[in-house]
Write a structure and sequence with these properties.
This protein has 209 residues and is mostly helical. Among the domains are: 54-109; 112-196, no CATH class. Helix content is 69%, strand content 4%. The chain is built from six helices and two strands; from the N terminus they run ββαααααα. Strands 1-2 form a two-stranded antiparallel ribbon. β1 and β2 form a beta hairpin. The chain starts with a strand and ends in a 7-residue tail after the last helix.
Length: 209
């Protein structure tokens, strides 16, 4: 247990319990939700060629609220607590991304324009830009595994934006590419979470990350 001096009472020390690493929670929340959405976009779960079932979409939305959204936001708040600016920004932002994703597909769906692809493409590109700068920032201190997650995620958002915008091109193909990249991103995030938890529990480096 760490000892700190209580503000206003410089001669009275109080004990503060150590805080566990919140990164594994944020990574698994992100990875599991991305895995579900990636499987749909890649075309692995369909009711007809290239068409996701309504039931499958509902499962993704539920996971996006509970695990991808709330789970990551909680992890982000604890990253603030441990003084990790990068982790706090990443987990909180992507938690809010999942909540916005749910709102777009439910509450605000009736308000979307008749052809929503231009604004949805910009939405995906905006997240691609954010992810690209987080990837660059990750090179300054994050693990190689975490950097890989951001690199693959940036490609996922960029190809998703192309899928929305490329009406003259085989858009469904770009969506499938984005889905496959999302699956790779999910695998990388889940592995990093697994490695962090395993190494922490064994109190030594068992898995490289």
């Amino acid at each position: 247990m760490a000892t700190v001096v209580s503000p206003g009472a410089p001669y009275v020390a109080e004990s503060v319990a150590p805080v566990a690493n919140p990164a594994p929670l944020g990574l698994i929340g992100f990875g599991m939700t991305t895995l579900l959405l990636g499987a749909i976009n890649a075309g692995f779960i369909t009711s007809a060629p290239g068409t996701a079932t309504a039931g499958s979409a509902a499962v993704v939305l539920a996971m996006a609220v509970a695990f991808g959204g709330v789970g990551q936001i909680l992890a982000g708040m604890w990253e603030f607590r441990v003084g990790n600016t990068f982790g706090a920004t990443a987990f909180t932002s992507y938690g809010l991304f999942w909540l916005s994703f749910v709102l777009i597909n439910t509450t605000f769906a009736p308000l979307l324009p008749k052809d929503p692809t231009p604004i949805l493409g910009l939405y995906a590109l905006a997240w691609g830009i954010f992810t690209a700068y987080m990837f660059i920032a990750s090179l300054g201190g994050a693990s190689r595994g975490v950097s890989l997650v951001f690199f693959l995620l940036a490609l996922t958002f960029i190809t998703l934006a192309i899928g929305f915008w490329a009406k003259s091109l085989p858009s469904a193909g770009w969506n499938q590419i984005s889905g496959i990249l999302a699956l790779l991103t999910a695998i990388a995030a889940i592995y990093c979470s697994f490695a962090f938890v395993t190494n922490a529990n064994f109190k030594r480096t068992v898995l490289p990350v």
